[in-house]
Amino acid sequence: MSAKILIVTGDAAESLEVLYPYQRLREEGYDVHIAAPARKKLQFVVHDFEPGFDTYTEKPGYTWPADLAFSEVDPGQYVALVIPGGRAPEYLRNDPELRKILKTFFDADKPVAQICHGPLLTAAIGSLSGRRVTAYPALELDMQSAGATFQDAEAVVDGTLVSARAWPDHSRWMREFLTVLRAKAPVT
Fold first, then answer.
1. Residue 1: predicted pLDDT
2. Locate the DJ-1/PfpI domain: which residues (predicted)?
């Protein structure tokens, strides 16, 4: 039986930030499950930049089924966690089931990869205090308010926590996360 990794997400997650780690980790031999507030087909989005806009734009992206609802997740079955960005973390941080799942991973010091707006979830459970992280650059003040030291870098590794700014940083983010995974939770 191969090691299992959990991705937590919801509607309006950034398509690339869900599907790239999903596929990359499966290539490595991990069994990857996607959990959301409900077991349903999720609607992801694409964030990109347009000339003349001060911030990113959002367009409909891929759809993908959630394997299970947050209420069905047994965190003890998983060796690691991935937290994609997009707009989903803005509302997911209010979900008490998800906060329990996240806390379990951090309390057990299991590998966690977060990207873009994903650190809003780890901030919501108080797990960024005293840590070094990166996130989408517009979240620098949020990260500092959560007690983290923000670094504007492709990937930041702080123990078992690996963070990245956004989808252009995928290669570095996954390289660093796989280094942590191979040490802490290798494929069996």
1. 60
2. 4-178
Structure tokens that stand for 5 in this block:
């990794």
- Greatest C-alpha distance within the chain: 51
Cβ atoms of 75 and 104 closer than 8 Å: yes
DSSP code for 71: G
Residue 48, burial from CB neighbour count under 10 angstroms (0-12, 13-18, 19+): exposed
Cα gap 135→114, rounded to integer Å: 8
- Give the tokens for residue 73: 């997740």
Token pair of 58, please? 């959002």
Residue type, 173: W
Walk along the chain (188 residues) in steps of 10 and give the mean pLDDT of each run.
93 98 97 98 95 93 98 98 98 98 98 98 98 98 98 98 97 98 93
Q: Are strands 31-36 and 4-8 parallel, antiparallel or unpaired?
A: parallel
Is 99:123 a contact under the CB 8 Å cutoff?
no
Alpha-carbon distance of 69 to 46, in angstroms, equals 23
User: Which residue in 33, 47, 117, 170 is the catalytic one?
Assistant: 117
Could you give the C-alpha distances from 23 to 59, 99, 116, in angstroms and in order?
22, 25, 18
Claim: this prediction has a pTM higher than 0.90: yes
Q: Assess contact for 81 and 24: CB atoms under 8 A.
A: no
How many C-beta atoms surround the C-beta of residue 185 within 10 A?
18
